[in-house]
Amino acid sequence: RQRGDHLSEMRGYLRTGGYEGLRKAIQMGPEAVQAEVETSGLTGRSGGAGFPAFRKWSLLAPGKPSYVVVNGDESEPGFAKDRPLMEKDPHQLIEGSLICAFATGSAQVFLYVRGEMALAQERLAQALTDAYAAGYVGKDIMGTGVDIDVVLHWGAGAYIVGEETALIESLEGQRGMPRLKPPFFPA
Fold this sequence. Notes:
Blueprint: H1 5-15, H2 20-28, H3 30-40, H4 53-58, E1 68-72, H5 82-88, H6 90-104, E2 108-113, H7 118-133, E3 149-154, H8 164-171
Parallel strand pairs: 1-2, 2-3
Helix pairs in contact: 1-7, 2-6, 3-6, 5-6, 5-7
């Protein structure tokens, strides 16, 4: 990649309507975004087992701090759905994460990327830097008064952190081992 290509990537994303979904979501308000997601039928993929996104969001305790954690570890054998997105269209991942955070009242997003995915890490880091500089991430996003920070976390490449509670342990600086949890608690 040539120096400065990242700026053309950002311009290309904006030219094709990038970050307009975020702008629209903020104008709609959290409740309307949640209703839109419910109507859409959006579900989780692979590890999400098709669980409806709006139901997962509705399980969050009102008034309690919540965080959006994006599992970009992609440790499932034979899967290649996350890596191409992170490498080829990182702004789309960032924008989607911001919309989710806004709709759920979360002020922070963690993008967890597998340690061996150096190109994905590089592209996401640059896209995140550019998005912060352009005012799409951080304090007062697009002059709307909405504040959402995004943290890029590079994992150590342990297969087990594909499991959600092990990933959270890893984010907290602990060994990536699953926590005990109720049999069915997807949020």
